[in-house]
Amino acid sequence: MRKVHIHSVKAGEIIAKTIFLENGNVLLGHGVALTDRYIQRLINMGIETLYIEDKDTEDIIPEDSIRDETRKQAVDAIYSTMTGLMEKQTLQRRTSLPDLGQIFQKVFGDILSDLSSRRDILVNLCNLHTLDGYFFHHAVNVSVLAGIIGLAKGYNQQQLMELGIGALLFDIGMTQLPKELWNKKTELNEEERQRIRYHTEDGFNLLRTQYNISLLSAHCALQHHERYDGTGYPRQLKDKQIHEYAQIVAIADVFDALISPRPFRTGYSPSEATELLFAVGNSMFDLDLVKLFLQHVAVYPIASTVQLNTGHIGVVSEVNPLAVNRPIVRILREPDGSPVASPYELDLYHKDCMSITIVKSV
Fold first, then answer.
1. What is the dihedral of CA 50, 54, 59, 60, to 10 degrees?
2. Is 186 within the bounds of a domain?
3. Which of 294, 320, 335 represents a domain boundary (last residue)?
4. 210/229 Cα distance (integer angstroms)
5. Same domain, 75 and 171
6. Would you state the pLDDT for residue 129?
């Protein structure tokens, strides 16, 4: 399969990877033939890219960091919790809240089990969801990214669980905002930005009183908008004053936000997002944590379409954990855009290909 932009797909092509709704349910499953009506609906729902079946790449199968069933259950838990809190506005009514600790220990336990079973801890986020589902799928993606960094740092089971639950619930304070502000489709004005800033303290105050949720997990909600140089909020903490869990969640939050389409902009490619993260190391984030994070992110994920400096167009067939920016690429088109006589692969990490680089994702 290969990942393509929505405006490049044609009626009759077959969906190769499931597209999810905001609550984790299936919008369109793999194997469904696209129609003009389906394509227009996906565009209207904010889907920018999707995976399609293709005879030249049928053996290229991107593996998400977690199983579809694990993701569905995690998104459903986030969706149920967040929408319930938005409806009830129960910040000061602890007795009406579900046992968040018990729920999300199970949720992150399943995520951690999937991550721990992988051969490597190189993340590949290949889930697809509607624009309205961003808030819920984003929380799951942040927990996946944070879990991978926790594993890379050698955290023990307790530390991983504290980090993971904090990552799943880091934005829970957003549920205390007016619904029209929380779900606004355009850019915010200054007054609205100031109101949204309170979500960090709202989230902390909600989580710190919950049974079975660590105070350190609650600090992920409080501190995920603090910045390494002291320019963040709510307390302008800097450097080691920010708990490491919150620093990891902040990096994961920004990375996934960058690569996700939003109502007012298209998503960045993973390679563009990694460049931006590296550029703000030791200003927004601890540079050592950024470097560790980037060592475990697929800059050019499997099945993504790329253009080389030679002009050739190809699809990433395999990622090299030792050099995430130099994957194996299956060449499909000549520099003039015509199909190659027979697809072939280039290992950009091989000494004979060191002069060949990826110019951009297409």
1. -30
2. yes
3. 294
4. 31
5. yes
6. 66
DSSP per-residue string spanning 66-97: S-HHHHHHHHHHHHHHHHHHHHH--TT-GGGS
Percent share of the chain, pLDDT over 70: 92
Kind of pairing between the strands at 339-347 and 328-333: antiparallel
Say if residue 40 is in the same domain as residue 155: no
The whole-number average pLDDT for the span 322-329 is 88
169-223 pLDDT, tens digit each: 999 999 888 777 766 667 778 888 888 899 999 999 999 988 889 999 999 999 9
| Residue labelled with tokens 């320019």 | 231
Nearest CA to 299 among 331, 330, 321? Answer: 321
DSSP string, 220-282: HHHHTT--TTS--SSS---GGGS-HHHHHHHHHHHHHHHHS-BTTBPPPPHHHHHHHHHHTBT
Residues 210-219 have pLDDT tens digits of: 888 999 999 9
- Neighbour tally for 102: CB within 10 Å: 13
